[in-house]
Design goal:
The chain has about 400 residues and is mainly α. The chain has 16 helices and no strands. It has one domain (about 1-195, about 210-410): Growth Hormone, Chain: A (Up-down Bundle).
Length: about 400
């Protein structure tokens, strides 16, 4: 009976990640191919992605702060609803100015769904009936990676299928995405938990108004958080260009929609073993050492795409996605949750997403689009491999150094 109750509480969260990542698979895999198909240049596509990223830079911390102040669930519903409306509006016209306006509108909402849902889920695991890293179904432990895996599996499945569905008519993607987001919104309405513990409720009564409204600037006084934000930014610059232009790169190599979908599916499938193992490695030392190795693997992956001359070579490089995306993502989410103040959890996740996705994508897409227009997409991949081999190896070392200083001070 107890396990049945736990299942009932857990199911909406699993369903949310399943539906949201199905929608993400459709939207992220093919939107730039759609823009290319309706006549936009590489530079125009890069500019659209960069402008969308600029909006998310402002939107993500704002939504995060509102979420911390008014309730995670309420704001999550608003951003999903806004993203749904935006997808319905996309295919109505194909002129560049109209699409630009819709990109701005969509980015205001879509980019904030994941950090807000991560904060809400981590809150549920910490205070809900399952308790974070506590006992759960059949005595096993439930953690963030377990729930997040539902999204990975659904992304892989949807990416493989949607390419066949969209063949010959890419504009269908927007209606499919809107439908899946509507179902995602319904799943949020069924979520329970993620509230405050009795201890926190009692403590709130004794706090001053100033304490209740902690400034987001506190996040930037924490050296560990700053290091995580910086590392997330560098990894994000590289991956944002990759995710924006890999579909176009594949079409340049002669791939069709089904082959593009398969490439995205392989990338998602590669995340599964990482999610299974990551929570076992998340302690005070191991994750950062793994992050340093991730920089090396990232460089190899970018180099493979540069040197590859066939779709098959890209398929192989996509199998490294689990290590080059999920490792830095997972480590950043949990480090941010560990080191951020209790009253700024959603804000901290949104700020990290801003560095990882907003600011990084702004740089990666805008300048990446300009470079790709000048030296070709393939040439940019060579440049990214060099960045990976250098900065991505150095930044995790900075985290280790700061972490060591923190331990000495507390000793």
């Amino acid at each position: 009976m107890q396990n049945d109750k736990k299942t009932a509480h857990l199911a909406p969260y699993m369903l949310f990640y399943t539906l949201y990542f199905m929608a993400l698979a459709v939207a992220s895999s093919f939107i730039n191919i759609y823009f290319s198909e309706i006549g936009f240049s590489i530079r125009q596509i890069g500019t659209l992605a960069a402008i969308g990223s600029a909006v998310s830079v402002a939107a993500q911390p704002l939504w995060g702060l509102l979420s911390d102040r008014t309730g995670h669930k309420r704001i999550l519903i608003i951003v999903i609803a806004g993203a749904t409306v935006a997808n319905v509006l996309y295919p109505l016209r194909r002129d560049y100015f109209y699409v630009l306006i819709i990109v701005l509108f969509a980015s205001l909402f879509f980019s904030s769904i994941e950090p807000l849902s991560n904060a809400f889920t981590l809150r549920f695991l910490a205070t809900g009936p399952l308790h974070r890293f506590g006992r759960s179904l059949k005595g096993r432990k439930i953690n963030f990676s377990f729930i997040r895996m539902a999204g990975t599996l659904s992304y892989a499945l949807m990416a493989a299928l949607v390419g066949q569905i969209l063949t010959g008519n890419l504009s269908r993607m927007f209606f499919i995405t809107a439908f899946l987001l509507t179902l995602t919104l319904i799943s949020v309405l069924t979520m329970k938990g993620g509230g405050k513990t009795e201890k926190e409720k009692s403590a709130e009564k004794t706090k001053t108004a100033k304490t209740k409204k902690a400034s987001p600037l506190l996040l930037f006084k924490n050296k560990m958080l700053l290091c995580v934000f910086l590392a997330s930014f560098v990894f994000g610059v590289i991956l944002s260009f990759h995710y924006s232009f890999i579909g176009i790169r594949l079409t340049q190599m002669g791939a069709n929609e089904s082959q593009v979908g398969l490439a995205m599916s392989l990338a998602a499938i590669s995340e599964i073993p990482v999610l299974i193992l990551m929570h076992k490695l998340f302690d005070d030392k191991k994750p950062v050492h793994i992050l340093m190795f991730t920089g090396l693997v990232m460089g190899i992956r970018m180099l493979m795409i540069f040197a590859g001359s066939s779709v098959g070579a890209v398929y192989i490089s996509q199998l490294l996605n689990g290590f080059t995306f999920m490792v830095p993502f997972y480590i950043s989410v949990l480090y941010v949750d560990r080191y951020s103040p209790a009253e700024l959890k959603a804000t901290a996740q949104s700020v990290c997403a801003l560095f990882r996705g907003g600011a990084a994508a702004l740089l990666g897409n805008f300048f990446g689009g300009i470079l790709a227009d000048a030296i070709g997409i393939r040439g940019v991949y060579l440049l990214l491999s060099l960045i990976s081999f250098s900065l991505c190896l150095l930044l995790p070392g900075l985290i280790l150094m700061v972490h060591g200083l923190r331990k000495k001070k507390t000793a």
